Amino acid sequence: MAVDGVSFDLSAGGVVGLLGPSGSGKTTLIRCLVGVQIVESGSIEVLSEPAGAPGLRRRVGYLTQAPSVYGDLTVRGNLRYFARVLGAPPDDVDRVLAEVDLQRDAESLVGRLSGGQRSRVSLATALLGKPELLILDEPTVGLDPILRRDLWALFRRLAAAGTSLIVSSHVMEEAAHCDLLLLMRDGRLIARETPASLLARTGAGDLEAAFVALIDRGMG
Amino acid sequence: MSWTRTYATARRILEQLRHDPRTLALLLVVPIVLMGLIAWIFPAHDFDQYGPPLLGIFPMLVMFLVTSVATLRERTSGTLERLLAMPLAKADFIFGYALAFGVLATLQAVLVSGISFGLFGLEVQGSAAIAVTDALLGTALGLFVSAFAATEFQAVQFMPAILIPQLLLCGLLLPVDQLPTVLHWLSYAMPMRYTVEATSVVMTAATVTSTYWVNLAIVGVFAIGYLGLGAATLRRRTP
């Protein structure tokens, strides 16, 4: 496996940022947490159950990196189907549409939407059924700054309401929105701390510089 | 397995097809056009001989292709990974597909049989049941085979690889008892052989007999077996 010795605790209602350059093992770690990755060795527990346990499939919401929704269904058609699979109440569809601000496009075919809209449909799907833990693989990648800001506001709102989130990104500036940072490089966890303590420890002016300093000084 | 989730899956698949009217039209019209062509080629007497088995085989080919590409798309687009991370049983997924395409196959079979009898003057009983069973078999085979394809190019090529040998050995070109011994034995493993046998029963006896039902049941067992194998190839964990 590409990821070694990673373990962390997350109390309910917080945002953990999983950061690192492309190819550092973020997606592999996320797929392990969700239980869709074949794990060679080691054990992973999520919400006190082994990762991927049947009991977790309703408690964990998962957003894959590429939007995994049906292009030949409408936005509402997609959400209605996934809501049925989850056993979520039908009005949950309207709730998640509002969360990601897609009400106006509800009846559009997903295949005709822009990339940013499509990834929000995929995100809305992960919110169905109000999971306790949301695992989001690069939810903001490729989106415009306004949309990124709105999504981070949504993540903070969900966290304030008691949802735990694990959000991966390769953009260090997004780290500032997180309560705890996991920094990865070459399949290893090189730091696990709050943004404030990372800045203090490295003496860097911003988180991007702090990450670079960490690698340069071999401080991981 | 849950009926609600199987039904939701089947409904979702049909809804997708509804948004793709060209595929839907091709599915329903192509077998009819092909039967018309056969009717045109052969004089009435020969058409009654070649028509019935082909009535089953055309829907099977079409459903095989559609199903294998559709399930491959689920695998490559990540929707299957997402579904398997949700409380969806593998059987819900497989039987959802079987149900959706089963409905479509029935529609197709009823249309093509009706038109073959009414318009092309085909005079054989029991062909519609064969067409439906065969279309289901095509769906089941397509579901199973899509597990071995990584791309749509590969999936499409499984059609000649899996179906043409059956077409050659099913007794349509040469009666199975005239095949070389090894091929004769091999033909027992080919579900299409039983289709041809069932149709030849109704053609010679001019009515449905127990042999007809037995052969049809064998095709059905093959279909269920392939659906089971298809479910077994779905993996929640992938590399």
Tally of separate domains of chain A: 2
Give the topology string of chain A: H per helix, E per strand.
EHEEEHHHEHEEEHH
Largest sheet of chain B: none
**Count of runs of 4 or more consecutive helical residues of chain B:** 10
Q: What's the oligomerization state?
A: heterodimer
Average pLDDT level of chain B: 88
So, CATH architecture of the largest domain in chain A? 3-Layer(aba) Sandwich
Number of strands of chain B: 0
Q: What features would you describe in this structure?
A:
Chain A has 220 residues and is an alpha/beta fold. Chain A folds into 2 domains: 1-59 and 132-220, Rossmann fold; 70-130, no CATH class. Chain A contains 7 helices and 8 strands, in the order βαβββαααβαβββαα. Chain A has helices at residues 26-34, 75-86, 92-99, 115-127, 145-160, 195-202, 207-216; strands at residues 15-19, 45-46, 49-50, 60-63, 133-136, 164-169, 180-185, 188-193. In chain A, the strands form 2 sheets. Chain A has a 6-stranded mixed β-sheet with strand order 4-5-6-1-7-8, with helices on both faces. In chain A, strands 2-3 form a two-stranded antiparallel ribbon. In chain A, strand 7 (180-185) and strand 8 (188-193) form a beta hairpin. In chain A, helix 6 packs across helix 7. The radius of gyration of chain A is 17 Å and the shape is globular. The mean pLDDT of chain A is 89. Chain B is an all-alpha fold. Chain B has a domain at 3-152 and 222-233. Chain B has 10 helices and no strands. Chain B has helices spanning 3-18, 21-41, 44-77, 79-84, 90-118, 127-145, 152-169, 181-187, 191-205, 210-233. The two termini of chain B are 25 Å apart. The model of chain B has no long low-confidence stretch (mean pLDDT 88). The A-B interface holds A 34-39, 52, 54, 57-58, 60, 62, 64, 66-70, 72-74, 77, 81-82, 84-87, 109, 125 and B 4-5, 8-9, 11-12, 15-16, 19-20, 77-79, 81-88, 92, 236-239.
